[in-house]
Amino acid sequence: MQKHKNSQRLIGLVVAFFILASPLTAQQxxxxxxxxxxSAEPAEPVPTFDTLLAADSYKVYCExxxxxGLIHSSAVSDLLEPVMKLGRPPEEFKTVVKWLxxxxxxxxxxxxxxxxxxSRPKLPTVLVAIEFSSPEEAKKFYPExxxxxPTLLPAPTPTPSxxxxxxxxxxxxxxxxxxxxxDGQVKIADxxxxxxxxxxxxRTVPEKETAPTPPxxxxxxxxxxxxxxxxxxxxxxxxxxxxxxLEEDQNFVMARNRFASESLFLYVDVKSIxxxxxxxxxxxxxxxxxxxxxxxANPPRAEESPENVAxxxxxxxxxxxxxxxxxxxxxxxxxxxxxxxTAGTQVSTDATLSARPVRGIDEVNPFMLSLxxxxxxxxxxxxxxxxxxxxxxxxxxxxxxxxxxGAETKASAIPFVPQFVSGPALVxxxxxxxxADTDLFVSVSLDYPQIYDxxxxxxxxxxxxxxxxxxxxVKDGPPPESPFASYEKKLGLKIKDDLLPxxxxxxxxxxPKKEPSPSPPPTKPDGxxxxxxxxxxxxxxxxxxxxxxxxxxxDREAVGRLIPKVIESLGFKGANLLAQxxxxxxxxxxxxxxxxxxxxxxxxxxxxPDAAATRHVVDxxxxxxxxxxxxxxxxxxxxxxxxxxxxxxxxxxxxEQYASPGFVxxxxxxxxxxxxxxxxxxxxxxxxxALTNDGLGPLHELHVPKNLLLxxxxxxxxxxxxxxxxxxxxxARSALQSVAAAEASFQADKGNGRYATIDELLxxxxxxxxxxxxxxxxxxxxxxxxKFEAIAIPLEYGKTGRLSYFIDESGVLRAGDHGGGAATxxxxxxx
Length: 831
What we know:
The chain is built from 23 helices and 25 strands. It is globular, with a radius of gyration of 39 Å.
């Protein structure tokens, strides 16, 4: 690094010399004929904000627009308020916020670029570029920024290296005779005259002075840009001549134009990340192959030959170690052998089972496991890029994410769920059947045939990998049948050809509103009072409402005929005998105990594990009290396009449950928190989301209410701010309990029935000074014969602690918030 800096300085001096000398040379040779200029490389062009990076320089690109206006906007200042007032942010964070507010006007029209995760060597790990309207503005701001950065990122303090200690011995006659005097040394002509005190002593040679440590960053100005990085760089490294600029990359340009008006823009080049991972994997495989070939070419020598092996170390005969060959009968045994088989194989056992087998368990489990593995297994289909943007609209923070898919992943809307294949865009009809008091509503459009084919492919690939890495030989023959084959035989139809065409594309889920409080449990028939277990069960049932699923159908009668077969094929033999039906104005509700219930409502099959939830859907539909008639739902989903691929709506009631002061961050509500909550709008709007396809790719859009985000940040900040207080309070509680235990020990031993003063406890080693004098609390002990009282008071109320504590000879610890005053025996006990 130092050589590089020196070379830079040398080049600069040479260039400066020629620049200064050129006018003088021109004056001396005015009449000289012009010479042909020597060909040289063109000077490096000054980059702009859009021509700074090549497409293959970084994998992550972030752009902040209108920095100064964003700093003064309520979208940022309102979010910073709870962090600054309720939390304990680090001093560096406070310094940055203060400095940005002071320079917001200068940065009013500026853009900031942040690039990270370099794709090539010799690039900074993080590069920050600030754009100004003109080079003069950038030049004017440069001293301000360069003067501020050392306060934020100071240069590390150099560690002084210890001086070198060299033993001093008497030189030999030959060396002293031939050696001349040197600087800093004493010439010894004759070893006989060397004082004995010098021989064997250690001479300290001071090291050279350490150069000042450079700051951990680089800052420079180039045209309208001010650049900050962790290491030095050249513009040719950022954008090679043969490379394509980032502004010429099709995916980047498409995403950037799509989010041109948002305040914050983020772009992640997933294709480059995936390529880097594959290259690294290939490199590892090549290194492993070279290692294997090297070991094969140079096998390790056997240290002992077979003749030198001791008799007791000789291996047993092969017949006694290896299992019998395939086809041979296994050795007889008195114990029954049990063979565990997977789906599609027979289970043979010599043991006789007297118990009656439960029908359906051995048949359902493999099917359900295959279904689960097919839905959530498989290789993730990652897109080529992901772009995101954040903006503030009214009282809502809007987060938009664009999935830039390639040709192979065009239909993938959620990369980490490979089997989620969206169907055509549609106008959701499920809000017309779900109740108006629904707390959570989710609707998606699905392409069932493609999902089914993807599941079969995933299961087949998993079985192929299992056979590939299995020690069992692979048998020739037809490929294994579909895991759904046995299920289809019981149904007497083909899932893809006969069942899926009966279904529409929309599938929806609703979570009914939570009951405010459980009703008192009824008295049992024998007159016995309900137990606490009954009350807890009813409370749990009220606290966890069961979801309702609605599946659009094209042929209600055909689906109705298939449902009994589907239930029996899943292993519930005789379940149809337990079915109970009830009709409500022509709508029939079928229930199977407390396990399953369904009904046809409009063009949907409504299914729920709770019969009461199904009845509620039917009653709301018949009374025209549906979600589509709710004002909150209509008003806060109005921003969504008419046709969507997915939709989510979280009602205000459910949002308020998670934004209530008792829930926010898990933090207690103190005075500062109460004061902040009093200024926040108590009415919380719904949380809404939509998935669409606007032609560029799947677009995810989330609308978060401002007051909800404020409450969540306030809770997290308050919890972080109270963490040191809570730690000090925990130590104070433990200290008082230790004092009480020490007093009890002293009274029973050396005290002869009396209690000790604090000095006596310290002298006996029963308590330590650290417990008494540190951790933000002052502990005072008062002793009177056979009584004592100990209190713990925070040193600085609100900073080192809030609660005061009290304990006496009873051993009961009590606490109360006295504003820094002492706790008394009248305070509440601490559990």
